[in-house]
Amino acid sequence: MHLNVQDLSVARGGIAVLEGLSFTVNPGQALILRGPNGIGKTTLLRSLAGLQPALNGEINAPNESIAYAAHSDGIKHVLTVRENLEFWADVFGTNDIAPALNAFELEPLANRPAGALSAGQKRRLGLARLLVTARPIWILDEPTVSLDIHAVEMFANAIRAHLVGGGIALIATHIDLGLEADILDITSFKAKPVAMKDDAMEGFL
Amino acid sequence: MKALLIRDLRLAMRAGGGFGLGLAFFLIVTVLVPFSVGPDSALLSTIAAGILWLGALLACLLSLDRILALDWEDGTLDLLACAPLPMEGTVSIKALAHWLTTGLPLILAAPLFALLLSLPSAGYIPLILSLLLGTPALSVIGTFGAALTVGIKRGGLLLSLLVLPLYVPTLIFGSEVARRGADGLSYSTPLIMLAGITLGTIALLPFASAAVLRVNIR
């Protein structure tokens, strides 16, 4: 099981942002994506997660192997922490949420409504969701936003455990997580601006 | 899929879930109609079936933008799109949850409200029957409208305008069943038409809803 990307181009709002991107991530490896704001990290990750089609190129990953964590955590504020996690566990067909609660130190908060959590605690809940999906490839978009140093360490440990178990992680982040991982700076894959043709409107009509 | 249904029902029941919204609106409409048209019970019993259907339809319309908008805002929809559920299944479950929390309470409350509008006694069974057959179509069509307008801030107006024409056939045949029943006429033809509309929308619209939702979450 690998995550393999060949000559990939992705677009946001119909305009190409990245092109010619190729990489392979093997089991037990993590790949960290770097690049300035607006370069297309989120667009790339959403394309890999299958949420939007790629312009060009190939994404090779086993079916239903990807768990995606975005900027927003998909947490329901009126449900408790436990109910939130149990819902995702049910959806993904797993049933043990204890390791996920444990990995992100959420047990003391398990019966609290998620709306009463702080931003960092919500993020921990959002990341704990990855564990209950039991999927091998994690695609993470700025996972450490609003986490404190201790929680970042928790997160790094969860990633390490995931990699030791043969998992794959693809992480877009600006901070150093202390992981032994390859770093890919995607700045050099920025798509060349395409000159607007005069007949663009004609083509549209 | 069961987990999604249970979660949606639970969310509707909890504070701020909007469970009582449609029901309260239905109550307001039926209580206010006698005040506005006058206490003439002969007139009221003539229009009762139509008013009840209109009230149920508008009550349904009121809660449509909650079907998908909340899940869109907090990112749940993106995560569900990556989950091992077909999008068609997700939207069908959403429509079912909407029917259970909006349509079903309306049906259960309808006999009580019919009393307020002095619906003739022959009209009760056809009224319940028509609502039972017709309201699922309202939820399924509404979910399609919600999928079309998801991601548009304050899309409620657009949603209502898009969905309203699609609701017209259901309203025509639904209230025709109730009206004919109240007049003591045979109502099997409009009932069959109503059942046809509902079954057709249940069979086809989830595919359309899933397709537009996939486009909208890009």
Automatic annotation (TrEMBL), chain A:
One of its GO terms (molecular function) is transmembrane transporter activity. PANTHER family: ABC TRANSPORTER I FAMILY MEMBER 1. It comes from Planktotalea frisia. Gene3D superfamilies: P-loop containing nucleotide triphosphate hydrolases (3.40.50.300). Residues 3-205 form the ABC transporter domain. Its EC number is 3.6.3.41. The gene is ccmA. Keywords: ATP-binding, Cytochrome c-type biogenesis, Hydrolase, Membrane, Nucleotide-binding, Translocase, Transport. This is Cytochrome c biogenesis ATP-binding export protein CcmA. It comes from the Bacteria. InterPro entries: AAA+_ATPase, ABC_transporter-like_ATP-bd, ABC_transporter-like_CS, ABC_transptr_haem_export_CcmA, P-loop_NTPase. The keyword rRNA-binding does not apply. GO terms for biological process: cytochrome complex assembly.
Automatic annotation (TrEMBL), chain B:
Pfam families: CcmB. Keywords: Cell inner membrane, Cell membrane, Cytochrome c-type biogenesis, Membrane, Transmembrane, Transmembrane helix, Transport. InterPro entries: Cyt_c_biogenesis_CcmB, Cyt_c_CcmB_bac. The keyword Ligase does not apply. It comes from the Bacteria. One of its GO terms (molecular function) is heme transmembrane transporter activity. The keyword Transmembrane applies. It is a multi-pass membrane protein. Its main location: membrane. The chain crosses the membrane at residues 12-37, 43-64, 96-117, 123-148, 155-172, 192-213. One of its GO terms (biological process) is cytochrome c biosynthetic process. GO terms for cellular component: plasma membrane. It is found in: Cell inner membrane. Belongs to the CcmB/CycW/HelB family. Required for the export of heme to the periplasm for the biogenesis of c-type cytochromes. This is Heme exporter protein B.
